[in-house]
Design a protein that fits this description.
The chain contains 19 helices and twelve strands. Strands 2, 6, 7, 8, 9 and 10 form a six-stranded antiparallel beta sheet that branches. A two-stranded antiparallel ribbon has the order 1-3. Helix 6 crosses helix 9 and helix 9 runs antiparallel to helix 10. It starts with 15 loop residues before the first helix and ends in a 16-residue tail after the last helix. The structure holds adenosine monophosphate and magnesium ion (MG).
Amino acid sequence: MDAHDHIRPHFNFDNSFARSLEGFFISCQAEPASAPKLLQFNHALAKELGLDPVALDSKAGLEIFSGNVTPEGSEPLAQGYAGHQFGGFAPQLGDGRALLLGEVIDNLKQRRDIQLKGSGRTPFSRGGDGKAALGPVLREYLIGESMHALGVPTTRALAAVTTGDDVYREIPLPGAILTRVAASHIRIGTFEFGAARGDVDKVRKLADYSIARHYPETANSENQYLAFFEAVSDAQAALVARWMNIGFIHGVMNTDNMTISGETIDYGPCAFMDTYAPSTVFSSIDAQGRYAYANQPVILSWNLTRLAETLIRFINTDKDRAIELLTDKIKAIQPLYETYWLAGMRSKIGLSEKDPDDLELINDLLLVMEGGHADFTLVFRRLAQALRGHSDEIRQLFDEPDAFDVWARRWRKRLKKDGVAVETVAQAMDLVNPIYIPRNHKVEEALTAAVDQEDMTPFAKLLTVLSHPFDEVVGNEAYAAPAPNSSIPYRTFCGT
Ligand code: AMP
Ligand code: MG
């Protein structure tokens, strides 16, 4: 028995989705877990959410995170959504293995969803078992928390539990549940769900709800739905630019995996790129390379166009005019994305002022990296070191260091123009270029130990390292290095 078992964990639930959006969910309960165990609990996040971490890191907390007890004030429900998956429309997906417990207001007065993922079948499960295996749950925990530490908007992980029950994939695997926290779980696919049913009023309600919850400032615009579309585009463009800046490949940018809030969601077949190659694909189910690294900005616009289609009738009573207005906003997405991306890249190479030639300078570095098979993360990190007068490490990253030297001379000349002291520039670069990202082989190592040996030590250590991605620590070299044998292409699988 835990000393805190007598404290009843308290959530201050305020369930606005359940109150406002009938037709977008079905109430249901989690399936019981036979012998749950709390594997990981996020104290810092619990505090941020205004919850009592001590009360939750307990047997009573475990009962909640395993779905065995519905906490007071929770109105569990499965959300409906549709989605374009690899370009094809699926009119009904929905939470087939997730359950929204409810919403809490955090310390910053932001409304946050608390959701169980892997808690059993729901009316949206179709043929699936509604369960999640331990490996993918820990993977989502790790990569999500890493993204957060990297400053990328993302859903978060509050807890990971094993259920004590096996889930059957090709082989029996330990079942697990992730408690996921999100600004909301509304996706482009949620709008498509309403639109596919021809329910105009419901889609309008969803838009009004999304405006109030995520973009209240747009409510005062002359055309609030157009302003809403623009705001979602802005958030998602900024997000994808951040992904590109850190070499992140989402893997399944289907419209059901793109949030209206602009948070990264669903860490299934995602991964960080090692060697820079724009055509990199990790997902085993993406044979065509639709969601390859370099294609992510294009897909951003494609997905937002699907959102636009659901909003046409709210933009203008004249359909042609509505389409014209939306098309203008859609055309603005790529330039907007490029502005975010370029700003990010400028700071990665230490530039504080804007120069018309910067784009070419940055693209030329990427070309040299591609030709030299250089590690994406390490090149940017080691640029600051080069600036401090130590070029050996960065030169070693390239097959042909001479090509890098030529580029570096141009770069130093460009930096002089800004006129900022070298050490100041180097320090600023270290704050934006991570040294620790979730390297695929390190993630696999941690998950294998957890799943096969029930040893959470490598996971805990990796999570600690990834929580401070910009602070280089002596002794942690193995966490910064690319896989020893990275000639075998890495493959990820959907986290089912
Ligand atoms: P995801 O790959 O997690 O984005 O999921 C795509 C769709 O498949 C969503 O509607 C999920 O709810 C559903 N799904 C994935 N895995 C399962 C499962 N094990 N049982 C039921 N539904 C699932
Ligand atoms: Mg999904």
